[in-house]
Design a protein that fits this description.
Number of helices of chain B: 10
CATH architecture of the largest domain in chain B: 2-Layer Sandwich
Number of strands of chain A: 30
Number of domains of chain B: 2
CATH topology of the largest domain in chain A: PmbA/TldD fold
CATH superfamily of the largest domain in chain B: PmbA/TldD superfamily
CATH class of the largest domain in chain A: Alpha Beta
Number of domains of chain A: 2
Largest sheet of chain A: 10 strands, mixed
Helix content of chain A: 10-25%
CATH class of the largest domain in chain B: Alpha Beta
Distance between the termini of chain A: 47 Å
Radius of gyration of chain A: 24 Å
Oligomer: heterodimer
Chain lengths: 552, 450
């Protein structure tokens, strides 16, 4: 089995983004080894994987399984950590093995092994069946699996232009040193910068007759800049305004055509990120935060940038519409959901105002959720969660579809490694942009008393997803249609239904971008997953803002 | 297989070191067997067990280091791994903060291992789940729980002659009980090295009691309240503060322990004088690994993997900051002794019970759990989060009625200044924490969540 370690990042500087640290799964390897695996110069070919899969499926069936699927997975990670002028750590890992899931006696069983040989796989399939049969004794109702027609032998690959694992390590270090240098030149006291690259090579086969070979790539560049005023003893930070993406190294090309201009020289990044430019701006903004005006608490109209709103969507729409949470399967950990089945059945539960259309999808190009097929062989699609403000659907997988009276899965099943069992995970959940032509400049012009919020800050929400509080990276006061200056100590508190019903205006498709979460946690033992949330800049009226300044 | 004895481990460590051609080499060998059982809606949903034995080799040339790992232990595999670590090291960028490896250290023999936990098997887990589910079924309540047990060892060694070995076991059990109508919810979360200290049925009954008592909660206005925090509630806030006691961050001006004008607040009185926080790997109730990064995965770790010995240390004494942790690099730069972060801490309390604290309270709120705690401002250690799974109004020394959950915005630093009373410490989340009575605790809004 594999090592599953967490790199604690408090000392590495991105602690504000992650509380549990960065999960590292797999064995250390050299960058060259990862490159060769990532480009397919090494490893088992598709025919070999098909043969091994058939061994597992046949073994499971012969032991009495009525359904079986097998995932042969190779997971490659390269994570880079720097501060100021030095490289702190470069983590290169590979994890390779197979997981077999079966239904026997109407009950799920799962087993995994790193012994990827015909013998090892057959033994693993036998164990999975034995576990299913043992658990069947405690089972009250048999698993009802939504049918899925086999898709035959197919392949899918993230449409990348540059494989990040092929880019020399030195080139990546040079970029980060350039980022750090630019931050220091512009007034940063300290800076940490990071690159995260992931390549999941997943071969899925099931007794439905599917043999699916997928090659999935993800990238996340980020940094944290600190500004310090020794005299007053104050310090402030500004995190990168990048987004993790389902893209290759081309995301770092920083193309001007992917930049969206906003007031005060702010820049939004769509399908390309200019990390050096953002670092220079970030350092200046971190310094400006040291002397920014402390916010007067009260009701404000909020203008929320996509790089901020994504997390609010994630927490207040993404999680409460996970069907397993609604049903109580996550009650002991993440919690349950206010979006109960009776609200959905009523067909008139106003989750938000009429402007609110929120879609789930696993198909959007460049997003973290995009794959061809999910981890139980279901072709990916998009579907409505909230239509014209009304709750219309949930996120469901094959063994949940029947609960909703559906005949097919939504295709949002995922396991974070070959040795973890797949379960329902959040697809991309995105707010659709407005149909009227509107830029962020236009939107701000219409606000009398408001705050423009950019970037991911502090976030907290209750276990049924009613009450939340969000901070951000940058806050600007809006008075009579104009930005008048930077604010500090801002957080807004609201109730999910109240908040989405206060949604009063949307920017259009030209302003639409994705935000992403690279290490979203769920389940016990906990598994991570990566997910994107798209939106255009959006206005919410009369939201309660508190002042978070304290003296100790 | 996964749990090697000290002698078996030393043999492998020595063999690996003998293959070294690097300037310095360190080896970490660890193994564990971990099992779990998860249930929800009064049925078992998943259970599993896995073995894990792996070796990690770090080779160093000058200030360049490289790490390779392996889970095969024949001579050829071991040598191949050494060569791979050396190759990665040669290609690695220089780390200007690299510190030479430590020579022989003295590690105390701490009692982190319990045979009772090492013997846990699938039947034990199933019966623990049954003991938890069965009373809930009978009372028309719904149980969701998770139990995870780990038995492991870590052995470290290096080319400067250092060697360490530690065995550890641990059990973490959490149980959420909800009423049938979804209006009441209760929780309990004990942890122990020795599983015989956890009574699964009795623990579940605590959560059942809270679920029944918390149903039909009334709304109170948010504001400042005297609160009684059960250890399960306060532990995460205190842990967050303790994790922010790094000296380098403070020296760099970006910590709550940074001093105006430069330097740190070491030696300053920041808390109520009754506040004393220590760590001690030899404590019977809270035994900890004798070296940083030791044993059975992250669970028993603390202080990084460079092998500094853990000793009894006082972090805060009578409200005064006595120690902060220093990495070996930063200590060297500042000319002080390096101090690893502790693997767990003890907030020394008093002798009163939770019931005593309630009895002496005229008006207040009993908080049994906080949830979704996130940092709002690292400068002031301000955190936000919510109460969960049972919050109650106290009047004239008695629990009067359950109240709706609150969101709070509060700093543990302010909390430990507004201290009214402390009870007897109990184990919570791998620490020893007393129940505490705190005045002027800041609740900022209400939540409808149950």
């Amino acid at each position: 089995m594999q090592r599953r370690d967490f790199i604690q990042l408090s000392g590495l500087g991105i602690g504000s983004l992650l509380t549990a640290g960065v999960p590292i799964v797999g064995y250390s390897a050299s960058p060259e080894y990862l490159r060769d695996l990532s480009t397919g110069e090494m490893g088992i070919d598709t025919a070999g994987k098909k043969q091994l899969s058939d061994v597992a499926l046949n073994a499971a069936k012969s032991k009495g399984a009525t359904y079986a699927d097998v995932r042969i997975g190779r997971y490659l990670n390269q994570f880079m950590f720097t501060r100021e002028k030095q490289v702190q750590n470069i983590v290169n890992t590979e994890s390779f093995g197979v997981g077999v899931r079966v239904i026997a006696n109407g009950t799920w069983g799962f087993a995994a092994t790193s012994d990827v040989t015909p013998d090892g796989i057959a033994k693993c399939a036998n164990t999975a069946v034995a576990i299913a049969k043992a658990n069947a004794k405690l089972q009250k109702e048999p698993v009802q699996l939504a049918p899925q027609k086999g898709v035959g032998e197919v392949t899918w690959k993230t449409p990348i232009k540059k494989n990040a694992f092929e880019i020399p390590v030195q080139e990546k270090i040079d970029l980060l040193m350039n980022v750090n240098g630019e931050a220091m030149k512009n007034g940063a006291a300290f800076v940490t910068s990071n690159l995260f690259f992931v390549n999941e090579q997943k071969y899925f086969a099931s007794t439905d007759g599917s043999y699916i070979d997928q090659d999935v790539h993800r990238i996340w560049p980020t940094f944290t800049i600190s500004a310090v005023d020794r005299a007053s003893g104050k310090f402030k930070t500004r995190d990168a305004l990048s987004s993790p993406m389902g893209m290759g190294y081309e995301y770092l090309d920083g193309l001007n055509t992917e930049k969206i201009k906003a007031p005060n020289g702010l820049i939004g990044y769509r399908y390309a990120y200019d990390m050096v430019e953002d670092a220079a701006l970030g350092a200046k903004q971190a310094k400006e935060k040291l002397t920014a005006k402390s916010v007067q608490p009260g009701k404000y109209d909020l203008v929320l940038d996509p790089n901020h709103l994504g997390l609010t969507i994630h927490e207040s729409v993404g999680h409460p519409t996970e069907l397993d949470r609604v049903l109580g399967y996550e009650a002991n950990y993440a919690g349950t959901s206010f979006a109960t089945l009776d609200k959905w059945k009523s067909k008139n539960f106003n989750y938000g105002s009429k402007l609110v259309n929120i879609m789930a999808d696993k198909t959007q190009v460049g997003s973290l959720g995009a794959v061809g097929y999910d981890d139980e062989g279901v072709p990916c699609k998009q579907w409505n969660l909230i239509k014209d403000g009304i709750l219309v659907n949930y996120q469901a997988i094959r063994d949940q579809a029947a609960i909703l009276g559906e005949k097919e899965s939504n295709g949002c099943c995922y396991a974070d490694n070959w040795d973890s069992v797949q379960f329902q995970r959040m697809p991309n959940v995105s707010l659709q942009p407005g149909s009227e032509k509107r830029s962020v400049f236009d939107m701000i012009k219409g606000v009398d008393k408001g705050i423009y919020i950019i970037g991911r800050g502090s976030y907290s929400i209750d276990q049924q997803r009613y009450n939340f509080q969000f901070g951000g990276q940058l806050f600007y006061e809006i008075k009579n249609g104009e930005l008048v200056g930077m604010l500090d100590d801002v957080a807004y508190q609201s109730n999910t239904q109240e908040f989405w019903n206060s949604c009063s205006q949307l920017c259009d498709q030209d302003d639409y971008r994705t935000f992403g979460s690279f290490f979203d946690g769920k389940g016990q033992p906990s598994q991570v997953s990566a997910v994107s949330h798209g939106s255009a800049t959006t206005r919410f009226n009369g939201v309660n803002v508190i002042n978070t300044g304290r003296k100790i | 297989m996964a749990i090697l004895t000290k002698e078996e481990a030393k043999k492998i460590v020595d063999k690996v070191l003998a293959y070294s051609k690097a300037d310095e080499m360190s080896v970490s060998l660890s193994g564990n067997r971990t099992g779990n059982i998860r249930y929800a809606r009064n049925s078992v949903s998943t259970s599993g067990e896995s073995d894990n034995l792996s070796l990690s080799v770090t080779a160093v040339y000058g200030k360049r280091s490289g790490t390779a790992t392996i889970n095969e232990f024949d001579d050829a595999s071991l040598e191949k791994t050494v060569r791979r670590a050396e190759e990665i090291a040669r290609l690695a960028p220089e780390n200007p903060e690299y510190m030479p490896m430590l020579g022989q250290q003295n590690y105390p023999d701490s009692k982190t291992y319990a045979e009772s936990t090492a013997k846990i098997d699938p039947e034990f887990r199933a019966s623990a789940a049954f003991d938890s589910i069965d009373p809930c079924r009978k009372k028309n309540l719904t149980a969701a729980g998770y139990m995870e047990d780990t038995t492991g060892f870590t052995s470290i060694g290096n080319s400067k002659g250092n060697f360490g070995y530690n065995r550890a076991t641990g059990v973490d059990f959490s149980i959420t009980v909800r009423t049938d109508d979804g209006l009441g919810s209760g929780y309990a979360n004990p942890d122990a090295n020795d599983v015989s200290k956890i009574n699964f049925k009795a623990t579940t009954e605590v959560a059942m009691g809270k679920a029944l008592a918390s149903a039909k909660a009334r709304a109170l206005e948010p504001g400042k309240y005297t609160v009684i925090l059960e250890p399960t509630a306060s532990v995460e806030l205190l842990q967050n503060m303790m994790r922010s006691m790094d000296a380098r961050n403070a020296d760099e001006g970006r910590s709550f322990l940074s001093k105006k004008g430069g330097g740190t607040r070491l030696g300053e009185k920041l808390f109520d004088e009754r506040v004393t926080i220590i760590s001690d790997p030899m404590n019977e109730e809270l035994p900890l690994s004798p070296f940083g990064g030791g044993g059975g995965g992250g669970r028993f770790g603390g202080g990084g993997g460079d092998g500094l010995p853990q000793e009894k240390r006082t972090w805060i004494e009578n409200g005064v900051v006595k120690n902060m942790y220093y990495s070996r690099y930063w200590a060297d730069k500042k000319g002080v002794q390096p101090i690893p972060a502790p693997g767990g801490f003890i907030l020394q309390g008093g002798t009163q019970s939770l019931a005593d604290l309630i009895k002496s309270t005229e008006k207040g709120i009993l908080v049994t759990r906080f949830w979704y705690i996130r940092a709002v401002d690292p400068q002031t250690q301000l955190y936000t989060g919510l109460t969960r799974d049972g919050t109650f109004y106290i009047e004239n020394g008695q629990i009067k009625f359950p109240v709706k959950n609150f969101r709070f915005n509060e700093s543990p630093v302010i909390m430990l200044n507004n201290l009214e009373a402390m009870g007897k410490p109990v184990r919570a989340g791998g620490n020893l924490i007393p129940p505490m009575k705190i005045r002027d605790f800041t609740f900022t809004s209400l939540s409808d969540a149950v």
